[in-house]
Design a protein that fits this description.
Shape: globular
Number of strands: 10
Helix content: 40-55%
Strand content: 15-25%
Largest sheet: 7 strands, mixed
Strand order of the largest sheet: 1-2-3-4-5-7-10
């Protein structure tokens, strides 16, 4: 990224923009990119800072792991400096706890917005919150050493960072339940077979594969891609007739645009 402009670098998150491509990097490899509320706030801000010309967002993790999940310091009585610990939040009101979790979820929801396509480049461990962050993206390109796991139930918790819906949509209810309840690892071959990974490549080829995919995503006209993503994201919630109508409306907008006809 020799020409990329850095717009944000704090709390283990770096945002750099190179024309129509944004690169968001989890940049605390010494802790295997473990996550914290401060990191989640930085991810939320990164989404808010994306310039309008950005079409593709690539998410990476520095080092040997994409993200080892939640930093366990969150569960200690002292928590993080300047932050209420999770134990303190649990002792407060239900409304306060719900609001806190909703704020954390903001870091995981914007990746699905229709005006960009988001790609996670995943290597090594993607555990818990790391798995859910990869699931937040539209597409996942994985190294052959990838190890996904949802470990929350083993801690007496549930996955609450927006990962349950995409996991079920990708692998089905039964497999999703088994993955979450057992906390087992999902390796590269299973990830590709079940649709968790769009592509699996040798670790040394991960960056090149992502570059090729980004180039292909940028090739079609932006508005056509945006409309298509919107159609596909809404398809599961629509009846057949509703989806047919959505297709007609989207195609009408595209044809009018191509013909130079105003609204």
């Amino acid at each position: 990224m020799p020409d990329a402009k850095i717009l944000l670098e704090r709390d283990g998150v770096r945002l750099a923009v190179d024309d129509s491509v944004a690169h968001i990097t989890l940049c605390n490899p010494a802790k295997r990119n473990a996550q914290s509320p401060a990191l989640w706030r930085a991810l939320t801000e990164a989404g808010q800072l994306l310039p309008g010309q950005v079409r593709v967002v690539v998410l990476r993790g520095e080092g040997v792991s994409f993200s080892a999940g939640l930093d366990r310091q969150a569960f200690t009585p002292e928590g993080f400096d300047g932050e209420p610990s999770f134990l303190d939040l649990a002792r407060g009101s239900e409304a306060g706890l719900d609001a806190a979790i909703a704020t954390y979820q903001d870091a995981f929801t914007w990746w699905r917005r229709t005006d960009v396509i988001t790609v996670a480049a995943v290597q090594g461990h993607a555990i818990g919150a790391g798995f859910q962050l990869a699931l937040a993206c539209d597409l996942r390109v994985c190294a052959d050493d990838v190890q996904f796991a949802m470990r929350e139930t083993g801690l007496g918790l549930v996955p609450d960072l927006t990962g349950t819906k995409p996991l079920v949509e990708l692998v089905g209810y039964g497999r999703a339940l088994e993955i979450c309840a057992t906390g087992r690892f999902v390796h590269a071959d299973e990830a590709e077979r079940t649709g968790l990974a769009n592509l699996v490549v040798p670790a040394a080829e991960l960056d090149a594969a992502v570059t090729d995919l980004v180039g292909a995503l940028l090739a079609p006209p932006r508005d056509a891609v945006v409309e298509t993503k919107g159609l596909l994201r809404g398809a599961a919630a629509h009846t057949e007739k509703e989806q047919y109508a959505a297709e007609r409306a989207a195609q009408g907008r595209r044809l009018r645009d191509l013909a130079g006809v105003g609204e």
